[in-house]
Write a structure and sequence with these properties.
about 90 residues, mainly alpha, single chain, elongated, 3 helices
């Protein structure tokens, strides 16, 4: 779950860096990382001694959501602080 948290956060930050809004970046990140989690579990069915399970996909998805949430909150907070400082400097 921790790896998928990092994946979700980093993918979100990558999309936001291309000036894609926060909501759209979150949706794209969630969908694409979810598809990756599904494909990873499917891939495990071909490895001897391993199985793929939907409960693992669910756990991975929770990690993805946590990564998106953490990075989105930090991004929005830093954006707010930066704009507030720039506004106060321009008013002086």
């Amino acid at each position: 779950m921790l790896i998928y948290c990092a994946l979700g956060g980093l993918l979100f930050l990558t999309l936001v860096s291309f000036n894609i809004n926060v909501l759209l970046s979150s949706v794209i990140t969630l969908v694409s990382a979810f598809i990756y989690a599904l494909s990873d579990e499917w891939h495990q069915t071909f490895v001897e001694g391993r199985t793929g399970s939907m409960s693992d996909v669910a756990k991975d998805t929770v990690g993805i959501i946590c990564g998106i949430a953490i990075c989105a909150l930090v991004y929005m907070a830093l954006t707010y602080i930066t704009h507030k400082k720039l506004k106060s400097v321009s008013e002086q």
